[in-house]
Write a structure and sequence with these properties.
single chain, 558 residues, alpha/beta, 5-stranded parallel β-sheet, 13 helices, globular
Length: 558
């Protein structure tokens, strides 16, 4: 190990890796500043730090709780506390002064590191732009949000950053993400970044294409170009472990799609996204309620970064938006705290934890009580008289008599004998006109099933869930979905409007061809223009030509 202070997890585990050093170490910051100044002296225009500008996803768990961080945390608290005591107060329960003090200590030293690096580079050339690559914990768990950190790095120059969420997450099955949920994660980060110049993480690590197909990169790239929010993409197109030219597939496909990029940007970028509003707070950890039986070292909590509400909507071929009210809204767990009471009248899709939070705030969601927890393996949709295999921890809940039950969750013994049945979802409208579709499970409490269970994903995405979500929008009685398509796994849809015209993009992110996909629209249109496909317009429906696996098709209607 080096002589610098290594990051230390809240369990007391010290990092065993030479590069995982703590920014609280004065000597380490001095060395890092000298190194940054040496790079700046080479005449570069831009310096960007890679993914390790974080206390998370290292070999020690959830941190840092080294001697310096513990000392500063105790100073902020005005009392002495051991690392073991701090762990209990940070990883159990909800908001506390201990959690906030520890968060502040982590943010303080990351900001100090960025300030020192900026100062070192300014001494050489104050016009060099400095930034960093975001990592999942940066947005909530490191004590300082990444947008703020980007501005510190920037100094007097224009701030920039590379967001996190990459195509390689899909073949690696990282955290249960699909390609569209990775796209949504980047759109979420962009919504938190304000006017900062952002680029996406177009990384097919570890390269070559046998590890991650170029088609994943191109779908990712074109979807985010259509969103129109990011300024660019950091496209890792060269396999730097082999000789140049060994893997040219990424570059060839990029070149082939140049005209498609232009066409997408022309028709999509200057329009406003329309669809279901996803509510996702940047900072949830400070007041997140963590069960007392939580046994992990804290690293699992980083997964609260992923927008499960966006995952549910996008994986069911429903377009999302990240600001405004949309046709309705969706918010899971603590994210519901950012939804206005007025927006709830348009309709809000929530999980059980969000319903409990609203009940605590005095908002009637139709929930009466929450009983015992048990594992279920089937969801029966009363709406459609149909079933889906699932894998989820649910609760025995009771609801008000005027709630409309839409599905039940069922536990079986050896998949034969029904042993328990509880409410899986229900619709409810309260006396104030606020409308809810409520699920009988807590989304984030079931994150692990997305990674470890064959049927875990069905909780969030399935043909029946997709039909239920469309039905909910119609039940809310406001605006219709701008665009929707049924029956195609991993068909990602984006819709954007400008005056009387609407652009719709469809990305087939699945291994099967889609035979003549049908897009249902919010009203009748009379004119249509196709992008990268053909088809026909039939009043409020568009029937497209067959879509090959991993392909894009789009159209503009007026």
């Amino acid at each position: 190990k080096s002589d610098y202070i290594h990051m230390t997890g809240i369990d007391g585990v010290v990092s065993d890796q030479n590069g995982i050093l703590c920014p609280s170490d004065d000597a380490f910051r001095k060395f890092a500043g000298e190194y940054a100044a040496e790079v700046a002296s080479c005449g570069v225009d831009l310096i960007m730090y890679d993914d390790d500008m974080t206390y998370g996803f290292h070999d020690f768990g959830f941190g840092c709780a080294c001697e310096n961080h513990m000392k500063y945390t105790c100073e902020l608290l005005g009392e002495e506390i051991s690392r073991e005591e701090l762990r209990k107060k940070v990883l159990w329960g909800g908001e506390s002064k201990y959690r906030r003090a520890w968060q502040k200590s982590k943010g303080y030293y990351l900001e100090l590191f960025a300030k020192d690096m900026r100062k070192a580079v300014d001494a050489v050339n104050p016009n060099i732009r400095m930034g960093a690559c975001a990592c999942m914990p940066n947005w909530d768990f490191d004590g300082i949000d990444f947008a703020t950190l980007a501005k510190v790095f920037a100094g007097n120059t224009e701030p920039f950053m590379r967001l996190t969420g990459a195509p390689y997450w899909v073949p690696f099955k990282s955290w249960g993400n699909t390609l569209q949920s990775v796209v949504e994660a980047e759109r979420m980060e962009q919504s938190w970044s304000g006017e900062i110049e952002t680029m996406s993480e177009g990384d097919p690590f570890p390269r070559p294409r046998t590890a991650c197909p170029a088609s994943f990169v191109e779908l990712f790239d074109t979807a985010l170009r259509a969103s129109g929010d990011l300024k660019g993409i950091l496209k890792y197109a060269i396999d730097y472990t082999s000789k140049p030219g060994t893997e040219d597939g990424y570059i060839l496909r990029h070149e082939k799609n140049r005209s498609l990029y232009q066409e997408i940007e022309t028709h999509f970028q200057n329009k406003t996204a329309c669809g279901v509003r996803v509510y996702e707070r940047m900072e949830k950890f400070n007041d997140m309620v963590i069960p007392q039986n939580f046994e992990g070292n804290g690293g699992e909590i980083f997964e609260f970064f992923f927008p499960l509400a966006a995952k549910m909507i996008s994986e069911n071929s429903i377009p999302t938006i990240w600001d405004g009210e949309g046709v309705c809204g969706i918010a899971f767990a603590e994210n519901v705290k950012m939804v206005s009471p007025e927006a709830m009248k348009k309709g809000l899709i929530i999980d059980l934890r969000a319903a409990e939070i609203l009940q605590e705030q005095g908002i009637d969601t139709g929930l009466v009580s929450v009983g015992e927890q048990y594992r279920v393996s089937r969801e029966y949709f009363d709406l459609f008289d149909n079933n889906y295999a699932v894998d989820i921890d649910a609760y025995d809940i009771t609801v008000k008599e005027d709630a409309q039950i839409q599905s039940h969750l069922i536990a079986f013994e050896k998949e034969v004998i029904e042993v328990k049945r509880t409410i899986g979802s229900y619709y409810y409208k309260n006396a104030d006109g606020q409308q809810f579709l409520v699920f009988g499970f807590s989304a984030y409490a079931n994150r692990g099933n997305l990674k470890n269970s064959l049927f875990g994903r069905h909780v969030y995405s399935s043909y029946l869930r997709s039909a239920q979500l469309k039905h909910a929008v119609e039940l809310f009685g406001g605006e219709k979905l701008p665009a929707y398509s049924a029956g195609n796994p991993d068909l990602y849809i984006m819709s954007k409007k400008d005056g009387s015209s609407m652009a719709v993009g469809l990305w087939n992110m699945f291994a099967d061809e889609i035979f003549e996909p049908v897009a249902e629209l919010d009203r009748e249109y009379t004119d249509i223009e196709f992008i990268n496909c053909s088809g026909r317009l039939e009043q409020d429906k568009v029937i497209l030509s067959d879509m090959p696996p991993y392909s894009f098709a789009g159209f503009i209607v007026k």
